[in-house]
Write a structure and sequence with these properties.
Elements lengths: L2 H26 L50 H9 L1
């Protein structure tokens, strides 16, 4: 295996250990997140503004129908052969 692959594995192990340690500290109460007061979003007023002018030149596509005759091959199916294959 090349050195880069081993380095990626080492980095993943370090991240995994860090996450496990963080979770252990959080569960045991060593790390405690607390807040005071209520979360309140600021009031925002938006006035005015304008949409940009957009000019789009698209292709002209003509869609039509044509009547076409298609030859369909005849298929001869023997029902006894089909039942014998289903039993296998």
């Amino acid at each position: 295996m090349n050195e880069r692959g081993e380095g990626n594995k080492s980095l993943l192990w370090i991240i995994l250990v860090a996450v496990v340690v963080f979770l252990l500290l959080l569960v045991t109460g060593v790390i405690d997140f607390s807040s005071e007061g209520e979360l309140e979003a600021p009031e925002v007023e938006v006035e005015g503004g304008a949409l940009p002018d957009i000019d789009a030149d698209v292709a002209d596509v003509d869609v039509g129908t044509d009547e076409v005759t298609v030859e369909v091959p005849e298929v001869d199916v023997d029902a006894a052969d089909a039942e014998a294959e289903d039993d296998d």
